[in-house]
Specification:
Cytochrome Bc1 Complex, Chain D, domain 2, mainly alpha, elongated
């Protein structure tokens, strides 16, 4: 095997691993809608967004159409005057996934 062939194999393997890691970063953790409703209510999301996310003082978020990454970004960052930020120490990544699935379900 020549050096050129080995380097092609190494580059190909490296590219494969990079793409695999990249795809894993963009995935949504498996969520549980029932747990999501529990976390949604426990964190008082219902006070502004309504019992099932269908609105109130805050916007309607039932059947949310944004991706999980965008959802978590909004959840963690204070970008509205009355929406408090929810750091991972308050709502874990798994709890956020559960809430996300609950909202996506629109139930």
């Amino acid at each position: 095997m020549t050096l050129f062939s080995r380097s092609n194999i190494i580059v190909s393997c490296g590219l494969f691993l990079f793409l695999f890691a990249l795809s894993a970063c963009g995935t949504t953790p498996a969520g549980n809608s029932e747990n999501g409703q529990k976390w949604y209510n426990m964190n008082n999301c219902n006070a502004c967004h309504g019992e099932k996310g269908s609105g109130g003082r805050g916007p309607n978020i039932a059947g949310i159409e944004m991706g999980f990454g965008s959802f978590v970004k909004k959840l963690r960052k204070k970008d509205a005057p009355i929406m408090p930020p929810f750091p991972e120490s308050k709502i874990s990544e798994q709890d956020a996934a559960d809430i996300y699935v609950f909202l996506k379900s629109g139930k």
